[in-house]
Structures are given as structure tokens and as C-alpha cells.
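C-alpha cells incoming
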């Protein structure tokens, strides 16, 4: 698999190419926001990442898509939020991007960021997979046309599951297409179970 290390307006990111990439063809694109554990100034903090492991598997549902993982080099994504939005738009406007299948994924701190990015650029995204995060649920009307799969652990004492329930309830109020899954036995790490369920990944990259 081809992986490019790139920098855009001070933000380093990894760009994973489809296995059988053909120049000139358009592909689904997943823009992924990591959690607090991935912060740093190089990519060694990504070691052991569930999503990186899955990207390397031959049977991965993501093998026919571009996958973008920027790295937060500050305390939070919101410290670099404006250039992050510019990066999202930059990727969206690449010739390889199928604009009907431009989707988002986020974990914990990255899930909060994902919600905010979606609210700023709702016209770009078709779907979002959110793990153990929350956001400005009172502003959910801005993202009502995006399809959601939301996941949380009932025993999460880092980000309380009420965050997911509030956003889900408000999305339903707007008639959004949203599904909430609460894992009864999971704590903060609900993403390992979520991403290892290939149905979730196939949903993310297919129409």
C-alpha cells in the first residue's frame, strides 16, 4: 500500500492510497481525526493504532478508498482548527476525491473535532462514524443531512455516554439518519470494537 507523508499549512498528515490506485479515477475518501493519544510532532504516536492495523489488512473494507489522518501537534485540534478546515477542503477538492463519498471518522478528542468540522462544512460530508465523543448538540440542525453511526461505551468515565445520547436525540429531532450503539461492557475504548466490525467500515465508504 502506498502511504504519503505530507504537510499542509503546518499540519502533518498521512495519506493512504487505494490498493489498486489508478490515476485519474475517483475514490471514496475517509478523513479521520485521532484522539488525544495520537498528538505529537511525528507519526510514532500512531503506533498500535487500531485503524492503522486495519488499513494494512488484505481484507480491509478500506482498501479501495483514500484514508487521511492528520496529526494534532498542539494540545487540542481547536488550537489549529482553521488550517484543519483548510486541509479538509484541500483534500475534498483533489481530483481523486469522489465528492459523493467524502466521509468522516473520529475518536474521543477527534470525535469532538469531527462534529465541529461537520458543522462548519456540512455540505462536504455524506457520512460520519463517531466514537466516544460529543459536540454542540443544540446546533445539530446544521448536520441533519449527514448520515451517522455513533458509538459509546456505557462504562466510559472519560467521555460520558450522555454526550452521545444528547447528540443522537437532537439529530433524531431533525429527522437525521442516525444510529446510536451503546456497548454495555465497554469503557472509553469503544473504537476497537467499532472499527473491527467491518460492516461499519463498509458502510462508511459505500453509497
Amino acid at each position: 500500500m502506498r502511504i504519503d507523508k505530507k504537510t499542509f499549512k503546518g499540519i502533518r498528515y498521512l495519506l493512504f492510497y487505494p490498493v489498486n490506485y489508478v490515476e485519474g479515477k475517483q475514490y471514496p475518501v475517509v478523513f479521520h481525526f485521532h484522539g488525544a493519544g495520537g498528538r505529537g510532532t511525528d507519526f510514532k504516536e500512531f503506533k498500535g493504532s487500531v485503524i492503522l492495523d486495519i488499513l494494512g489488512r488484505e481484507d480491509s473494507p478500506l482498501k479501495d478508498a483514500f484514508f487521511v489522518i492528520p496529526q494534532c501537534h498542539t494540545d487540542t485540534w481547536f488550537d489549529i482548527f482553521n488550517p484543519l478546515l483548510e486541509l479538509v477542503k484541500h483534500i475534498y477538492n483533489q481530483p481523486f476525491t469522489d465528492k459523493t463519498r467524502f466521509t468522516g471518522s473520529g475518536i474521543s478528542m477527534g470525535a469532538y473535532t469531527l462534529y465541529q468540522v461537520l458543522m462548519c462544512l456540512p455540505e462536504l460530508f455524506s457520512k460520519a462514524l463517531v466514537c466516544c465523543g460529543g459536540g454542540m448538540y443544540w446546533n445539530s440542525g446544521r448536520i441533519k443531512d449527514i448520515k451517522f453511526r455513533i458509538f459509546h461505551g456505557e462504562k466510559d468515565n472519560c467521555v460520558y455516554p450522555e454526550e452521545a445520547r444528547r447528540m443522537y436525540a437532537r439529530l433524531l429531532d431533525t429527522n437525521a439518519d442516525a444510529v446510536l450503539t451503546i456497548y454495555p461492557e465497554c469503557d472509553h475504548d469503544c473504537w476497537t470494537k467499532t472499527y473491527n466490525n467491518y460492516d461499519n467500515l463498509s458502510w462508511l465508504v459505500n453509497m
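note: The radius of gyration is 16 Å.
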